[in-house]
Amino acid sequence: MSILVWLAVGLVGGLLGGWLWGARGRVLGGDAVVGVLGAVLGGFIASVTLGLDIAGFDGTSVLVAAFGTLLLLLVLHALPATDVYD
Question: Which end of the chain has fewer beta carbons closer than 10 Å to its terminal beta carbon, N or C?
Fold first, then answer.
């Protein structure tokens, strides 16, 4: 059940974070995907390294997923933009 919570929090957090940064269109969709990846990665790291029991739907699961989403979105937006050449 908690993986579904991580996915939902990551999706909403990614969309909200991208929207607040002014992203539109495909960039906003990319932020949503990065949010989901960050939530799952945050949940996995918290369970493996910190030994947190985040198997249920509780405040800890939501907090860990939100923190992972925020961290990965900050890393994404801190990277410099690159030009794509054909």
Answer: C
